[in-house]
Specification:
Number of helices: 4
Helix content: over 70%
Number of strands: 0
Distance between the termini: 31 Å
Largest sheet: none
Structural class: mainly alpha
């Protein structure tokens, strides 16, 4: 991860965290804020899980094709390694439903 990516990620996290402290008000306003932040958290859980899965499957997929080209009998067992990162999206869906 480059220095620029770390700065962007830190500023995004700071912006999301600081919104919780930015408002004063009644319980109704606080409940709306928490409901909105839960929605942001659910979206991040699903979105970042999907991005991680895409990156992992891109790298695993290219290696899988090369290995199957050399020995086609290993295609079935190597397919399991290709499908394993898909559990990240399943966990993202689980977090999405738990947060809502």
């Amino acid at each position: 991860m480059t220095k620029y990516n770390k700065i962007v990620l830190a500023s995004l996290a700071f912006a999301l965290i600081s919104t919780g402290y930015a408002q004063e008000g009644t319980n109704a306003a606080t409940d709306e804020l928490y409901r909105g932040l839960r929605a942001v958290g659910a979206g991040l859980a699903l979105g970042l899980g999907a991005i991680g899965t895409g990156i992992a499957q891109a790298r695993i997929g290219s290696s899988l094709v090369g290995a199957v080209a050399e020995d086609p009998s290993k295609a079935g067992s190597l397919l399991l390694y290709f499908l394993l990162p898909e559990t990240l999206v399943i966990f993202g869906f689980l977090a999405l439903f738990i947060l809502n």
